[in-house]
Amino acid sequence: MIFAAGLGTRLGAVGQDTPKALIDVGGRTMLEWTVGRLVGAGADRIIVNVHHQADRIERFVADHDFGAEMLVSREPERPLETGGGLLHARGLFRGDVPILLHNVDVITDDDLRGMVAAHARSGALATLAVSEREASRYFLFDEAGLFGHEDRRHGTRRESRPPRGHVRRLAFAGIHACSPELLGHITERGVFSITESYLRLAGEGHTIRPWELAGRQWLEIGSPERLEAARASLRRAGSG
Length: 240
Fold this sequence. Notes:
This protein is an alpha/beta fold. It has a single domain, classed as Spore Coat Polysaccharide Biosynthesis Protein SpsA, Chain A. About 30% of the residues lie in helices and about 30% in strands. The strands form 3 sheets. Strands 1, 4, 5, 6, 8, 9, 10, 11, 12 and 13 form a 10-stranded mixed sheet that branches. It has a two-stranded antiparallel ribbon with strand order 2-3. Strand 2 and strand 3 (about 30) form a beta hairpin.
């Protein structure tokens, strides 16, 4: 599933004129970059949630052959965030294979197929792609998995349970692999971040593990400056 329902407000005028998913980055739209990575990882059914300029994204999806079955999950009243969006689309998942979730504004060359395989072997409820980098928010992991979250912007730290052994503070990369059973464990409703569900479930004893990015490329396109930096990076790499 690709999360593409955001309003694009952080991108300023460009995000208002064009839905984030359809903004060109290095000769391809963000949606094309993301679908390409997911298909390369083995996905044959992809759900895209939409809200802002939903008709444009839906037409774009209908007009292109992405090499996979493409389904659109509309959020007509307002964006439901990651947790609400996932729950809203739950009827579109097969229910018997791992779910790979990917923000549309992230471009990476990481081994997503390997991430899904490692997740399936681990028996964890979810596996979060993370890295050691400077960020304003962090997931907190110990030897047993996720146990907390830290938000430096607001000076808050939340622990779902006491830490066990060595603690690591890792920045989320906007990609996660989940067992289909996760959908049945989500009790939150309305507009909410999947982070809320992960922290609650970690406190209830479910295992949520980290996957450290090993690829050379990770681009998050959340502002005009990052958009231009991503375009420059892809030009240098000869990807455009």
